[in-house]
Amino acid sequence: MDTNRLSKKMAAALNAQMTKEAEASQIYLSYASWASNQGYGGTANFLFRHAQEERNHMMKILEYILKRGAEVKVTAIAAPPPNPASMYNCFEKVFSHEVDNTTSVYSLVKLSLEEEDWATWNFMQWFVKEQVEEETLAMELLDKLKISGGEKAGHNELYSLDRDLENAPDSAKSAQDVTADKP
Ligand code: FEO
């Protein structure tokens, strides 16, 4: 008896997303190492923590595929893109990467809708919410850099941003959780 509850197409798409999350983890690892080499310890710490979050996303998908009785395919992953050219460029790259990941999450949601695979549709909603948080976080960091002068941000501004990032939360507050009392 076949106990696989995912279509072939859905299993392939979920495996591809799992690989994408693993690649994201490597991207954050490489940017974190770059930041550390530049002397931005706080930024490096933030990006290293985020690399771990991406690995957790990978595991979340891996476990879901197994839970639905389909096959997990662990494959080689692409090398991260070149190092950022500056702190501003680093967060531009982070933001573009997250937008790209959101596009990929949306196509999985679309496929689950087409297949009327409501279990996967429901599972993917966690990722939809997570992407809003991650894009917001990257946007907020880019905004901070913009008001500090963007590419022209001076040493003092970069120093305080780096210090802030040392203890920055790993995710932005979801819009759903915001109230007038707790903005
Ligand atoms: Fe796994 Fe940054 O999304």
Return residue spans where pLDDT drops below 50 for at least 5 consecutive residues.
Answer: none
| Annotated CATH topology | Ferritin
Q: Percent of residues in helical segments?
A: 55-70%
- Gross morphology: elongated
Q: From the helix content, strand content and strand pairing, which structural class follows?
A: mainly alpha
N-end to C-end Cα span: 52 Å
Using the 3D structure, state the CATH architecture: Up-down Bundle
| Secondary-structure element order, N to C | HHHHH
Gyration radius, in Å = 18 Å
CATH fourth-tier homologous superfamily: Ferritin, core subunit, four-helix bundle
Arithmetic mean pLDDT: 92
Q: How many β strands by DSSP?
A: 0
Instruction: Please report which band the strand proportion falls in: under 5%, 5-15%, 15-25%, 25-35%, 35-45% or over 45%.
Output: under 5%
Count of structural domains? 1
CATH class: Mainly Alpha
Question: How would a textbook summarize the main sheet?
Answer: none
User: Helical region count?
Assistant: 5
Question: Which distinct ligands sit in these coordinates?
Answer: MU-OXO-diiron
